[in-house]
Amino acid sequence: MSRPRTFDLRAQPGFAFIALFTFFMLYLPIAALVVYAFNAGDSMAIWEGVSLRWFQAAASNERVQEAALRSAIIAICAASIATTAATMAAIATTRTKPYRGLTFKYAFINQPLMVPEIVTAVALLIVFSRIKVWTGYSGLGYLVAAHAAFCIPFAYLPIRARLESMDLTLERAAADLYATPWKTFRYVTLPLLRPGIIAGFMLAFVISLDDVVITEFVKSGGQDTLPTYMLGQLRRETTPEVNAIATVFLLVSLILVTAFFFINRRKA
Amino acid sequence: MASAAETARQAERADVRSRWLLSTPALLIILVAAIGPLFVMLAYSFMVKGDYGDVKFGQFSLDGWFSVFFSRDIFDDTVGLADAHLSIFWRSVKLSLITTLLTLGLGFPTAYFIATRPASTREVWVFLITIPFWTNLLIRTFAMQEVIRNEGILNTLMMWLGLIDRPVQLMYTDVAILFGMVYVYLPLMVLPLYASMEKLDFRLVEAGYDLYATRLRVLWRIIIPLVRPGIVAGSILVFIPSLGAYVTPRVLGGGKNMMLGNLIELQFGAGRNWPLGAALSITLMAIVMLALLVYVRNAARSGAQHV
């Protein structure tokens, strides 16, 4: 060996340093945001000691309560609709010989991922504002429909992946034993598919909960969700109350993402 | 025999039919609340603008498309280029390109670092990249504001180090937008890069060293060509949302430093020019579609790898 034995094939000079710096930079802003949520002072500028007052302020702010509730309702409805539709679509597009229209379906289902959010948002604004005038209805239905549409590709992904890893043996066995198609689906396919469906629902839920742009353009007056409420607050001088809301929001996302991670890992 | 083949064909047809039936809800929702409205918007871009927003329904006009690129002088009716729009177009493309380069500069070593960890800890590093990816984009933008505002960490640190003696105004500048976009879209660069680096065959790297290549040469001539699909994928995944960014420039750039997304919003708000807004949206979408086409071709050439 002409080279010393410790020569590390994989090392590249400076890479580890840049990587660790990147990880640090990825978490520093979030950490700053969380720390300032505990600021006792009135402004974001000056640190005046630890306090929970802004969490209390946020929790007792009626507009925040309403926005949080609205966010939850929309996310649950949209994720449920999206997951149901995506499950059906996934069953229809997997475990089959290619048939006419299959590629079309893939393209259609993934379309919401391809178009910039702002474009979809203004297109929905155009159409829904007219429907609102025609029908006189201006409830949460529009937001649920819009969210369901862009959640479908996210729900579809893990369900399709799960289906592709299942073969048809068990379903064929059930059919051989005279199970009706519905019974086969209910007692064989669905239980096997459950981890995929749960993962799909959670992804859809997080995506719906996080949405700002489409909600901002589709909502009628007084239909703020938590993200659009925060966006509105960022326009003016902010108090640490926004930090407190963001901190709780982060915590919820973190729990969901961690749960998703473990569900996915168990599957693998 | 013939009848057996006939029944088989019938069964197949019934299967395809039921598969269409099953897909209907998903296709319908996306048609109504995603694809359909895009076509309506296309129609709107060819209509006369209404006096208070909206359009004069059914009245054809090319004014919307005309004013994407040109402007008519209000006094002498001469036609010139729409400098305001073109400069925003240019700024959007420029900022998106710089964002892509910066995320590549940070993301490449990061992905390489993760890919060269022992298998047992690799998952944890990937998870650390995934968490910010799934947390709210608005919150991450707001978090970046905490760092770069006048009383923020960055200014405090630089003053403490004695590099500056009064805070540098970063908020509401192009630099702020860049900081925000790099921060927000970085995971989109790291994840596809990692996906292709994970498959990197280090025997090729070893072969390079055996032939007396330097580290830089190995990086340049072996590693980078091998992970090229990941570089292209990551770059496009960052470039596309950067170009359509709305939240980050709005929060960090303020009212003056607009990007395309904000220009589009303006037409539907104070600008009251829906046909122009629609035409701008379609232009943005067309650019994105072009970028996606490059992405798809790249993926197809590199053996249909999914990220």
Question: How would you characterize the overall build of this protein?
Answer:
- The complex is a heterodimer of chains A (268) and B (307).
- Chain A has helices at residues 15-37, 53-60, 62-93, 102-114, 117-135, 141-164, 169-176, 181-210, 213-218, 226-234, 240-267.
- Chain A is mainly alpha-helical.
- Chain A has a single domain (62-267), classed as MetI-like (MetI-like fold, Orthogonal Bundle), CATH 1.10.3720.10.
- The longest helix of chain A has 32 residues, at 62-93.
- Chain A is globular.
- Chain A starts with 14 loop residues before the first helix and ends with a helix.
- By secondary structure, chain B is mainly alpha-helical.
- Chain B has 2 domains: 1-44; 82-301, MetI-like (MetI-like fold), CATH 1.10.3720.
- Chain B has 13 helices and 4 strands.
- In chain B, the strands form 2 sheets. Chain B has a two-stranded antiparallel sheet.
- In chain B, α3 runs parallel beside α7 and α5 (137-148) runs parallel beside α11.
- The longest helix of chain B has 43 residues, at 2-44.
- Chain B is flat, with a radius of gyration of 25 Å.
- The model of chain B has no long low-confidence stretch (mean pLDDT 89).
- At the A-B interface, α1, α3, α4, α5 and α6 of A face α1, α3, α4, α5 and α8 of B.
Key words describing this protein structure:
heterodimer, A: 268 residues, mainly alpha, MetI-like fold, 75% helix, 0% strand, globular, B: 307 residues, two-stranded antiparallel sheet, two-stranded antiparallel ribbon, 4 strands, flat
**CATH architecture term of chain A:** Orthogonal Bundle
Largest interface, with counts of residues having CB < 8 Å to the other chain, equals: A-B, 90 and 91 residues
Proportion of strand residues of chain B: under 5%
Number of helices of chain A: 11
Uncertain stretches of chain B: none
Number of strands of chain B: 4
Quote the CATH topology of chain A.
Answer: MetI-like fold
Radius of gyration of chain B: 25 Å
The total of beta strands of chain A comes to 0
Instruction: Note the overall shape of chain B.
Output: flat
At CATH level 3, the topology of the largest domain in chain B is: MetI-like fold
Global structural class of chain A:
mainly alpha
What is the CATH homology-level superfamily of chain A? MetI-like
Span of the ends, CA to CA of chain B: 47 Å
Q: What gyration radius of chain A follows from the Cα positions, in whole Å?
A: 24 Å
* Overall mean confidence score, pLDDT of chain B: 89
CATH architecture of the largest domain in chain B: Orthogonal Bundle
Secondary-structure element pattern of chain A, one letter each: HHHHHHHHHHH
CATH homology superfamily name of the largest domain in chain B: MetI-like
